[in-house]
Amino acid sequence: MSKQSPTFELVTDDEIDPRSCRALWCAVLQELFRLAVAPRASDHATETAAARRWFGSKDFFMVCSLAGVDGTWVLWGVRRHLEEQGVA
């Protein structure tokens, strides 16, 4: 019984929808924001703390870039919101 390597098809540039990609990264920002500022009962405290630490990280700024938003401005808004909630 021989193992076969999985085959991958390359995605070409003309198959990529920039609006869909931007929407994906905006959704990442939205979910991390929700987790940081309005965690649900089902969210673990460690996840909420990690989400709050994520804002301002290299990964955060990369996601902002991919989403097409100004990371510095977003970070300012998130920090302001957290301060108003008394959790910053």
Coarse shape: extended
What's the number of extended β-strand segments?
0
Distance linking N and C termini: 57 Å
> Helices and strands, in N-to-C order?
HHHH
Classify the secondary structure makeup into a structural class. mainly alpha
Total separate domains: 1
| Low-pLDDT residue intervals, each spanning 5 or more residues | none
Biggest β-sheet description: none
Instruction: Tell me the radius of gyration.
Output: 18 Å
Q: Overall mean pLDDT score?
A: 91
Q: How many helical stretches?
A: 4
Beta-strand percentage range: under 5%
Helix content: 55-70%
What does this structure look like?
By secondary structure, this protein is an all-alpha fold. It has one domain (18-85). The protein contains four helices and no strands. It has helices at residues 18-37, 45-54, 58-67, 71-85. Helix 1 (18-37) crosses helix 2 (45-54).
Tag the structure with descriptive keywords.
0% strand; 88 residues; mainly alpha; 4 helices
List the helices and strands and how they pair.
Elements: H1 18-37, H2 45-54, H3 58-67, H4 71-85
Helix pairs in contact: 1-2, 1-3
Briefly say what this structure is.
This protein has 88 residues and is an all-alpha fold.
